[in-house]
Amino acid sequence: MALLLGVDTGGTYTDAVLLRDERDVVASAKSLTTKHDLSLGIGRAIEAVLDDSGVDPSEVAMASLSTTLATNALVEGQGSRVALIYIGFKERDLETHGLGDALKGDPALILAGGHNHAGGEAAPLDIEALDAFLETHSDVSAFAVAAQFATRNPTHELAVMAYISDKLRAPVSASHQLSAKLNGPKRAMTALLNARLIGMIDGLIGSAQGTMKRLGIDAPLMVVRGDGALIGSDMARERPIETILSGPAASIVGARWLTGVDHALVSDIGGTTTDIAVLRDGRPAIDPMGAQVGPYRTMVEAVAMRTHGLGGDSELHFKSEGLQGGVTLGPSRVVPVSLIAMDAPEVVHKALDAQMRSTVPNEHDARFVRAVKGLRTDGLGAREMALLAHIGETVLPMAHALKNRIEAQALKRLVERGLVQIAALTPSDASHALGRVNVWDSEAAKKALALMGRRRTGSGDMLAPEPGVMAQLVIDQLTHQTSLALLETAFAEESENFGVPSAELARHVLTQRGLSGHRGLMRIDTGLNLPVVGLGASAISYYPAVGERLGCEAILPEHGGVANAIGAVVGRVTMRRQGTVTAPSEGCFRVHFETGPEDFAESALALDALETHLKTQAQSDAENSGAEDIHVHATRAVKMAQAEAREVFIEAVITVEASGRPRIAA
Predict the structure, then answer these.
(1) What's the pLDDT score for residue 665?
(2) For the stretch 511-541, what's the b/e string if a residue is b when 16 or more beta carbons lie within 10 angstroms of its beta carbon?
(3) What is the reported pTM?
(4) φ and ψ at 168, to 5 degrees?
């Protein structure tokens, strides 16, 4: 029977699991994700699972990879420096559609060109302006190209792609290759984020393949897409945006495999995010609006997942408002103090002890910084470069790193580029202080909690008198925010529309009082009417209290800590292609192929030509992604209108899906 290797690379841990013929878990293992060199964490996880199982590496017939790195990068605003070539659009689109925020100061060119809705050229492509722009911005890691109505005629996008590739040999992300739908600004956003992720996902896949080769594993490598399907590693390198929500999608597939449950909320808590989806009839729903991660709405098909910046390594923030004060978590991820103390115990404990001796709390107490080695520093200003040099290669207390408040912005920029990591107090530290977990430095966690607990609330009292009390306060806040996230998802997915935003309903006083079983003149009861499947290494620590709070069953399956890695190898290869037929004039039916529009005299001929073309493409995509026993299915959505007592063809969209089992090495 075949042995299948699943690997999931998350923000904190890299998981590996070995399955025998998709039926039995042979062994599983975890290793810390090593962002400066992903191959180290991947290698340690795979080596551990091979050692535990005692199998020969040559027996592994297939490997599959899921990851939250792309999701985490978008949530945290990280990624490589890129440039956007925006063809035929208005400059105001950059601000009105959020592209300016997504660029984060990276360059953009508004270029003349583009097409109209019928696929005709709206304006000639300005190659001279493109050439001048490339001369000035040749230092970016990748380019994103989006042209007006490129899904109706992509020739300008293709021309710009070819020009950049010929001149700079740089990776180019074209919007029409990522989505066949209209909405240029949204396609531009998708292409921009795809370009920003190319280097990261390429490095991840290269690390996985290099590790497999070093360990003697000669098997095809698949990658989990955001809808839970598998794709070949080469395709994932070209279209890394499709791996956003890869880890969460794999976790849903894994949850179904582990529990057999048909109806549930699946909640996967990692180091950076909590990802929640509804499982109906054993299948996750696909988001018809496209995947949304953090502030960004893309055109990528993915599971209908709500991603919240809430995890075991979420940054803890002190709330000074009100008499009681309090804490809140996220959305940014930081390195837990208990973890960074393992790497630099002398530096961390010396700084914490000195801060404990101070009579006045400081905003930089229990906060540290360290540089991430081996990443490009293109596009950084003098202040950022100076701060990076000052941090050097050691762990540094933040109070020593920042000489003045102006440098705080420089530090923020370095963190956004992934060049510097911040260490601070997290729920993971609270779990160590309470003895729920014992893998990192618990004493460092207790000192950091004591420093946070002595902050003064609005009433002048200390936030928490003892580290244990402070730790429980953090865990209670995680329970509260997790419950809100689950309620928000449930309200959003209810068949009945309550007429109020789901986030507002989750926080409404009646909802919250109902969770506590209010009994006065009114009796108020609220809660979830389906179980919650808690996944992630820390779910067993946090989710029993969440289930109790929401009045529902909390299912915590065995191997739930590696559900992502399990889901990575039990999925199917599924490729989709979509195309459009329009009617620009009576008796003319226009098929919008990738090479340009082609006209037909009859609608049936146009539809058949497009369907045949899409089936060939989808079949080829599935084969190239390592599928066998492929089944191809096509659906047609035809829009007609009544005009003078007769039906008139308006538009048709054909979607083709090719699905098969992943090919397993002999």
Answers:
(1) 66
(2) bbbbbeebeeeeebebbbebbbbbbbbbbeb
(3) 0.75
(4) -120, -15
